[in-house]
Amino acid sequence: MAHDGNEYLIETLGQLVGAKKEATALHGRLTNLQEALTERDRLNALKQNENDELRIRNAKLELDMMQLQNANAALRLATKDHDVLRELLEVTKMDVTTQQQRANTLEQRLHQLDQEKNTLAHELQAAAQIVRVDIGVNTNPLPTPRTTPNDMNLPVVRGPLTAGPSRERNLKEERDTSADIVVVHPPSRLPPPRKRAIENVPQIIPDLPDSGTVCFTRPFISIHIGGGSQSLISNIAAPKPLALKFGITSYLCPNLWENPWCPTSPGMAGYMFVGLGEEIHKFLQPEVHELFVGVAKTNYRLMGRYRVHRVEPLTVEEWLTLPEKVRSKYCETTQRKAKDSRSVEGINAAYERGELRVPCVKLTCLDFKEDLYKKLKAQKMEQNNTNSLSSQRSIKQESAVMRSSQKRPRIEETINVDEFSVD
């Protein structure tokens, strides 16, 4: 029995030892699991921190990308501005060269004029005894003063103090063009900010004896250059020989009674009020056009080749400085072009409140094609001479009929009459 009891104890002790080993193993495994859990928590915390850092870096990168995009857009704008400025610089260099050449030409011309002045002084002294005559009047002595048929008053041009073919040609040219020269009063006073914006712009002064004062009608311009004879902006679809020779593809024809800030002589800078109706998107980018300005009804003067671009619209104060007739006319233009259903008075009130603002376009002269002006003037003189000859023949016929009906002795007399038709 004692032996059985010992075996039982030994077996039980063995089981306890085995259980202890298992408990020890389980404890080790539990410890390892706890360490693994601790490591996993640590790794998760590290991963979370890394994710937070990545999110922060991502947000920073997005901000940097937006800044780079803004900088890129600004760079593109700066590049465009640089190109425009470079173009302006080239134009300015060309203008400076042209001005220098013209200054040299003017200096030579002044020297020639001094010599001509001295020569003319001697000629005037020698011609002091020459009797003045009237061109267009019979110089043969008559017993009594004569009158024209039906008591018609004929234009008389005073004769020269000196004789000679060159002076006669000058007088003929003056007669042929004088009817197309219109005296232009200075433009309405520019507001100081507008004046400052153009007062430093160099003026192109053409080297012409008549300073480019001969005017042309819209139909005349259309016939000899091309384009329409009505619209303000005339694009030339079928260019005439003059347009092809001088590279003209378009021209502008504003007038002073609607655009009183326009140039009034070739080469001047100025402004025009263009941008209503279909023209609302015109001149937002600079454009280059030949410019004719209407200085009187049916009379347009060539001002030169101009750079044209939109500037700030007129303020209420600037609108109120315009003459009342100009404002009324512009309100009518607004009503027509913008298809505004309000009355002219209502549109004027809208301009006075600042609800409507007049678009303003700056005009800067780049050059003046003197040869183009001379060609147009020559065509005008040829046309005027043709019309004048036709008029002279008609007057001669009427005079002959009148003298015949009054049974007077026929006296041969040529009366020069300068009548200029309007295109």
From TrEMBL:
Presence of keyword Zinc: no
Tagged with keyword DNA-binding: no
TM stretches of this protein: none
Annotated region (Disordered), positions in chain: 381-423
A Pfam family annotated for this UniProt entry: DUF6697
Keywords: Coiled coil
Residue ranges of coiled coil: 33-130
Amino acid composition bias (Polar residues), ranges on this chain: 381-394
All residue ranges annotated as the DUF6697 domain in the record: 216-378
UniProt protein name: DUF6697 domain-containing protein
Lineage: Eukaryota, Fungi, Dikarya, Basidiomycota, Agaricomycotina
